[in-house]
Amino acid sequence: MNNGVSILAVWFLTAVLAHSAEAAADREKLLKDPGVYGTFAVFKVDGDWWKLDKNVRGSAAAEVKNVFQKHADKVVTDTYLLRGLSEKADFFVRVHSTEILDNQNFLVDLMGTTLGKYLHNTNTFNGITKKLNYVPGFPEELKEALKTPPDPGPKPYVIVVPIRKDAEWWNMPQDRRSALMKEHTDTTVSYLKTVKRKLYHASGLDDLDFITYFETAKLDDFNNLVIGLERVEENKHNKQFGNPTLLGTIRPLDEILEVLTR
Q: What is the pTM of this model?
């Protein structure tokens, strides 16, 4: 009997470790591969939430954690605190999956919780990751520069900038757009070490064309990067840049919930 129990325990532990490894691999894959749907859901907490008893808010936070755990096999989630840096929203969640239906199911369940009933969904952006469009045509020197790894260490700040192009941009010949994007990219090279970027294509999935996501430890570098990009010709074709721009800090779910249950 003891041997049987020991064998069962070993099998169970192996299965748990295998599942954990698989989940970790899925996260890496979803954050790296093209063809992945990203949803950015931005929330402001209703003032009546703070009138609830602290124990009630604590129970509501546990309910939220259960929703994140329930969907962990289908979606990868990251949480960000906006409170204190924005008067329009308190936090947002970035959700990745290979099926946007899974993003939707997760967010529907989140908004169905006790906390969810006190949330105003101020913005939602939807996009998909794709292979790089213009880089293959760039000079080899620029391609090599783009391989510069980011500086090690945490990058606690997040900035999300939605972008919409004008009709002239989309009707422009590919070679002309490529030339403008080369100028754009040349401007970014100096900041590759300190500003990490991820691009989502949103045309047809949203009222936007792109969702640009940045992480950095140096907001002054990000500020200078944007100023540089405002000077290139490609910027003339930005019909929308920001509005809203999301500025926050990268926080684990437990920290977000701790802020909301104080």
A: 0.89
